Amino acid sequence: MKIFQEAVQLRELKRGFHIITAAVQQALPQIRELKTGMCQVFIQHTSASLTINENADPTVRQDFEMFFSKAVPENDPDYLHDDEGPDDMPAHLKAAILGSSVMIPIRNGKLALGTWQGIYLCEHRDHGGPRSLILTAWGE
After folding, report:
1. Number of folded domains that form the chain
2. Which of 20, 59, 78, 109 gives 32 a disulfide partner, CB atoms 3.0 to 4.6 angstroms apart?
3. Which family does it belong to (predicted)?
4. 21: domain range?
């Protein structure tokens, strides 16, 4: 069994849903050495998240942002945690709903994503700053 791990820092992205599949593949080229295995992508933040979804039509990402903005609104007077601005508590809730990691099978040296699948970095803050990821791949 082989295990590879890389830390990656992504530049600050605007609020929204961003496809980062290519950045993951570029940061962990050792995946090509694995015939079969798994790749975990983990984000080291509590106000951004990761998910896998449609990678072809950009309106899907716009609809994700619209849905989460409606489902978890800013400026809710019931929020207690508001020291970092009106987008902070909703960002934590959105990240809890979507999650902090994704797992992708590796098959024949490639991420075994479906035809229309991509890895999203979900930025829930207006100014979240650079985001740190830990990429871990293992297999044979």
Report:
1. 1
2. 109
3. Belongs to the UPF0047 family.
4. 2-74+84-139
How far the first Cα of the chain sits from its last, in Å, is 5
The span from the CA of 107 to the CA of 111, in Å, is: 6
- Token digits of residue 59: 């309106």
d(CA 30, CA 96): 30
Tokens matching residue 123: 């930025």
Report yes or no on whether pTM surpasses 0.85: yes
Is 79 a domain residue? no
- Token pair of 131 as six digits: 């985001």
Q: What are phi and psi of 134, to 5 degrees?
A: -115, 125
Average pLDDT over residues 94-119: 98
100: CATH: 2.60.120.460
Contact 127, 48 (CB under 8 A): no
Quote the radius of gyration of the chain (alpha carbons, Å).
16
Residue 124: name the closest of 56, 58, 59, 71 by CA: 71
- On whether residue 39 sits in a domain, the answer given is yes
pLDDT digits (tens, 9 = 90+) for 83-104: 899 999 999 999 999 999 999 9
